[in-house]
Give the backbone structure.
Amino acid sequence: ASASYLRVGGVSDINTNSYTDNNHNANNEQIKYLVTADFGEEQRPFGYITTIFLTAIQQTSNTISLSWTIPGTSVVGLSNAQYKIYRKQHTTGDIWQQVANVTQAHNTYVDTIPPVCSDSLAYKIEIDNTNGCTLRSNISKLVVGDTEQPEMPTLNTCSVNVDSQQIELSW
């Protein structure tokens, strides 16, 4: 393997076609892999693959900017596939909803959400290859809120209610 990669594991059964890396957290950063075949002392690279790392940032009160890394050029079966963007919003029941499809020519998207005072959002990206496999990103979570200051109200009255003797303000 290349000097810039660390061996994270291996599979000895030639019929096994997957590996789970339990040592790295793809929620914190993009993870890059070089998959090789070992033939005694010789190692032959199969290809490079990376996790899809998603970042979500609130730009305005109702826009969220998403950007993500691409899975790499060694992944087969992605030629006409599109990224599927999903959002989960706490105030709407924490259900994943697909909000957009994006071609592979782009790895950014701006999501427009309804105005909210405060809410928790989560986003994820998926892309399906022609072999029936789905590549998934990390889940990017954020708390959003209204970032615009309201206009100052026009104060109309400050009166004492004759019956209750309480102060009533109106604007």
Summary: The chain has no helices and twelve strands.
